[in-house]
Amino acid sequence: MTEINQTYTIKASIAKVWQTLVDPKIIAVWSNAPAKMDEVVGFEFELWNGDITGVNTIVDKPTLLVQEWQYGDWPKPSRVTFSLKAVNNHTVVKLTQTGHPKNEQKDLEEGWDSYYLGAIKKYLELI
Question: Which residue, 22, 63, 62, 26, is CA-closest to 45?
Fold first, then answer.
């Protein structure tokens, strides 16, 4: 099974990091694209004008967000888990993605860093 594991330490409160993951207005700012998102189990979200779609499967505010992610012509969605932990005045975000096509592993790893969690870190540490 394919798996991606990445950890980010972000100089922001857990509440702020959580909001950057679930508030469509904030997502639109750091991603530079419209988003449909909510912090509700079963919510069907869209990111980057629908290039990425999925559904929230577990929402435990503000520490755990689990989603099914679908991109392009994947035969089935992958599972994405964001685990958040407050540590002093920082938040440690652990990302796990499983079930994605093996041939897309490297692109996904780079994408998380360049366009998603890396972008969130830059956004929160600059405001």
Answer: 22
H helical segments located in 12-99: 14-22, 24-31
State pTM to two decimals: 0.95
Dist CA 34 CA 15 (whole Å): 22
- Specify the pLDDT at position 40: 97
- Measured distance CA(95)–CA(44) in Å, rounded: 20
Across 11-127, where does the E strand assignment appear? 44-47, 52-60, 64-71, 78-87, 90-98
| pLDDT in the model for residue 2 | 86
Q: What is the CA radius of gyration of the chain?
A: 14
